[in-house]
Amino acid sequence: MAKTEVILTSNIVGLGAESDQVKVAAGYARNYLFPMGLAIPLTQANKRRLEALRQRRAEREAHEFNTMNELAKSLAKLICVVTVKTGEDGKMFGTVTNGTIADQLKTQFDVVLDKKKIHLDQPIKALGEYEVELRLHPEVKGTLKVRVESSTPLPPPPQPQEAGAEAKSQEGKPEKPERRARRTYRSDKPAEGPPKAGTAGERKARTESKPAKPE
What we know:
This protein is an alpha+beta fold.
């Protein structure tokens, strides 16, 4: 395929920017670039326009940088809310992609942003808040807060029934008097029992030892 060398007069993604000299297919240049005013043939006469094209390029890039820098500051203050459908357990149906976020920016804030500038390592698959990286310009990066909410209200958490029922059952009941603990005294002395009768010899000795009654 025949090639031809051209001078770009506009910024073309994947090809170059103003004042760049590139080689392209002759048919592409003849049928698209030249008619659209995106490039001019590389000739000695057109080379004289290079300085003007470089100046235009510098002005455009400075304008883009300032615009993206201001946009990054504005987006950092926003919270983009994405509403999704969920099941009873709170799990999402589907995912949230950079295209979804770009659509919501357009709908909620009238901000048109190429989804390729919204960087996600992987689609969002759960409810919550996220800090999403924005690559607005080769020299400008920013962040956007994205809140993923459910369109189906989740049921309230169950209340603890046992504790509440027990507390309720205790209401109205008279308080029971506190029982005093019985004091137990211990003695090291053995308990005294009834006097032992003794043996027959001991009884006889005690009888004899008694004084005789006078007659």
